[in-house]
Design a protein that fits this description.
Layout (H helix, E strand, L loop, with lengths): L2 E5 L3 E3 L11 E2 H4 L7 E5 L9 E2 L3 E2 L2 H18 L12 E3 L3 E4 L17 E3 L2 E4 L9 E2 L5 H17 L3
Antiparallel strand pairs: 1-4, 2-3, 2-5, 6-11, 7-8, 8-9, 9-10, 10-11
Helix pairs in contact: 2-3
C-alpha cells in the first residue's frame, strides 16, 4: 500500500476523486489539532487518499458576524476588543478557543509565522489589522456548526474571569 506524507498545514485529503471536493477536510480535522510534525495517511481498501494544497478561503459572513460579537463581549468586560487593531497582546486564551488582535511583529516574535487571530480546535481565522479586512478562514463552516462553536465560546467567556 502506498503511503503519503505531507505537512498538516499545507494539505488536505478526500475520499472522493479530485473532481468532487464536497467531502474534503483538512488534516487538522482528522488529527489531534495540537499535534506537531508530519502526518501520514495510507491508501486503504475502501478508498484512496488524494493530497493537494489547501488555501485559506475568504471569511464567511456568519463567521465574521460571530467573531465581531465575541470581540464586542470581550471589549465590554475588558475595555479592549481583539477584533480591532489592538495588537497581539490583546487576547483571550483558553484551551477551547483563542482570539487575539492582529500581530504586528512581521516574524520577529514568531519566526514560523504569526498565530491565527482565532482558533477553535482545528478551525482558524486570520485578518489583516482588524476583523473585516482581508479575513480568511481555514475551511468552510456551515452556519449550524458555527453556531455550536460560537455557543461553546460564549459559555467559556461566561465562566471565565477576564
Amino acid at each position: 500500500m502506498p503511503t503519503a506524507t505531507a505537512t498538516r498545514k499545507d494539505y488536505a485529503w478526500t475520499s472522493k476523486p479530485c473532481g468532487d471536493v464536497t467531502e474534503t477536510t483538512t488534516f487538522l480535522d482528522r488529527l489531534d489539532p495540537w499535534a506537531e510534525g508530519l502526518a501520514k495517511l495510507t491508501h486503504g481498501a475502501s478508498g484512496f487518499v488524494v493530497f493537494y494544497p489547501v488555501k485559506e478561503i475568504p471569511m464567511e459572513p456568519h463567521v465574521e458576524a460571530g467573531l465581531r460579537h465575541l470581540g464586542a463581549l470581550i471589549a465590554k468586560r475588558t475595555g479592549t476588543n481583539p477584533t480591532e487593531n489592538t495588537g497581539p497582546d490583546v487576547a483571550f486564551t483558553h484551551h477551547v478557543f483563542r482570539i487575539a488582535g492582529y500581530c504586528w511583529c512581521d516574524g520577529e516574535r514568531h519566526p514560523e509565522g504569526c498565530p491565527p487571530n482565532f482558533r477553535y480546535g482545528a478551525f482558524t481565522c486570520r485578518w489583516y489589522k482588524y476583523l473585516g479586512r482581508s479575513g480568511v478562514q481555514s475551511r468552510p463552516v456551515l452556519p449550524n456548526e458555527w453556531r455550536t462553536m460560537l455557543a461553546t465560546c460564549l459559555e467559556v467567556l461566561e465562566g471565565q474571569p477576564i
